[in-house]
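Dear colleagues,

I hope this message finds you well. In preparation for our joint manuscript, I am sending the Carboxypeptidase (Exophiala oligosperma) sequence together with its predicted structure, so that both groups work from identical material. I would be grateful if you could confirm receipt.
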Amino acid sequence: MHDMLSYIWTTVLLVVALSTLRVSSMRPGGLLSEAVRRDQVTRVMLPSGPSQGLEERAAPFRFYKNNTKKYLVESLPEMDFDLGELYSGVVPIDMNNASRGLFFVFQPRVGEPVDEITIWLNGGPGCSSLEGFLQENGKFQWAWGQFSPTINKVEYPVGVGFSIGESRARTEEGIAEEFNDFFFNFQKIFAISKFKIYVTGESYAGRYVPYIASGMLDRNDSNHFNLSGALTYNPTIGEFGWVQTQAVIYPLIEKYNNVLGYNSSFMAKLASIDQTCGYVDYRDTHVDKFPPSQVQPPKYFNSTVDADCDIWHAAYFAAYGANPCFNPYLITLQCPLQGDPLGFPSDLIYSYPNTPVYFDREDVKKAMHAPVDREWSLCNGNPFVEGQGGPQNLGDMSADPIQRVLPRVIEATRRVLVANSDLDFETPTTGTLLAIQNMTWGGLLGFQNKPVKPITITEPDLQYEAIFASSGFDDVDDPQGTMGVQHFERGLMWAE
Ligand SMILES: *[C@@H]1O[C@H](CO)[C@@H](O)[C@H](O)[C@H]1NC(C)=O
Ligand SMILES: *[C@@H]1O[C@H](CO)[C@@H](O)[C@H](O)[C@H]1NC(C)=O
Ligand SMILES: *[C@@H]1O[C@H](CO)[C@@H](O)[C@H](O)[C@H]1NC(C)=O
Ligand SMILES: *[C@@H]1O[C@H](CO)[C@@H](O)[C@H](O)[C@H]1NC(C)=O
Ligand SMILES: *[C@@H]1O[C@H](CO)[C@@H](O)[C@H](O)[C@H]1NC(C)=O
Ligand SMILES: *[C@@H]1O[C@H](CO)[C@@H](O)[C@H](O)[C@H]1NC(C)=O
Ligand SMILES: *[C@@H]1O[C@H](CO)[C@@H](O)[C@H](O)[C@H]1NC(C)=O
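The corresponding structure tokens are as follows:
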């Protein structure tokens, strides 16, 4: 058990601090802004291409075979370094009918091979997991310390990113089934068997991850679905229309108004909504109770009837007044607005001039074996075909994961991590913890004890060490120190 935790723990150290940078969007900005399309700018491609012969270069690759050849990524525009072993492309959900499939990126571990696969999913719903690949935990961003041995990312569900075919997303159970069909086919193609499988993701993937993991358990196939753990960052695992957002946003605003910068009359207005709409009472009853004194009542935010109680959106839109570079995924960011090769530096769509959206470039699509006729944007809009209905009115008809699938995955693996970063306006930490406190696993409701154990990072500063040294500042470069709080009960680890 200790070993297993330390493995997951290593994972968190490298990623949690930065995951706030870009948790995929799940509300207006993100979903609305996809309507904005920018002109394509043509760009001169750097000469690229391996100097060595392909077969020679690929000879040491573990998964390189006749039938995986077509997925090998030989080079990528703008990346003038050896990509190592990297595959991407579309694998059908049904091998007998290629009309619907999921797009994946597969980066085997650098160094000693391990028989493990970590699946990473971004959220939205409707946002592409290529964000994670390029900006959060891919080989390129994290070349100095891969957070997990093997990374495998998928554009999920159908309708997102480069995945092909019409979307049929209605329930999490249904799309998890499609994912697992795809994943089985993927393993067949890459001759993968008897690997340990970890399912991970962030934001709305807080719903995908437990449903996929639970679907894996249903398969009774330990050769292909040996689920060994799961991890989610800033996840929408509970009721997020009311509890994980509206009910908990005011304390976050109050704590960070030194950077958010709302004026005093607006703060007074927010405080009054917080009080009259029952959010204060709810927090008084349920926050910071270990063990929880009671099960939480059902909650639902009806955006028509409850419009006057929409403190979250009131504050969200006003935040741009005080700070035009407001980033709801990392509230401390100030101007200038940072250009983004994926065109999505916050909920605003922006990249530096002459920087087309990387994965929408034809040369990049070709290099990655992606459908060239498919327009790529970071978030494609809600992939759930009904568009409304379900517990959060997004057309996703499945129950909140805390109700059944997440407890099941924790009990089966005893190795699940839920982590939340504090500077996220979209999914505040208090709300995620409230969701956990309304979940029964291992026979008990919620955590029994208050999370207090510090996360102290004593590793040297690997990221900036060289810069400090070359600037003559090596003696002032400290390890990161205390970064947060960790807690473990009955197979579930929490980190904030
Ligand atoms: C791979 O393809 C080559 C050329 O088509 C063939 O000679 C070789 O036998 C194939 N290898 C396997 C393992 O199928
Ligand atoms: C493949 O699936 C599509 C729907 O995705 C369907 O329209 C088509 O008829 C199927 N083709 C075959 C050969 O079954
Ligand atoms: C599944 O993983 C467990 C450890 O998590 C391991 O003990 C077991 O042998 C694996 N099963 C298979 C079929 O690989
Ligand atoms: C998996 O095993 C359980 C319990 O043995 C059984 O109820 C279920 O039908 C099995 N599922 C499949 C897909 O074989
Ligand atoms: C809390 O859990 C109970 C029992 O599963 C459920 O009925 C209720 O809707 C949940 N409340 C919230 C806010 O998640
Ligand atoms: C919200 O409330 C209105 C008015 O009562 C009702 O017509 C509508 O169906 C509700 N929406 C949902 C999704 O429950
Ligand atoms: C305070 O902020 C609100 C929301 O941004 C704005 O509508 C209002 O005009 C501001 N009041 C003053 C006095 O600046």
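For the figure legend, we might mention the following. Confidence is low (pLDDT under 50) at residues 1-50, 141-153. DSSP finds 15 helices and twelve strands in the chain.

With kind regards,
E.M.
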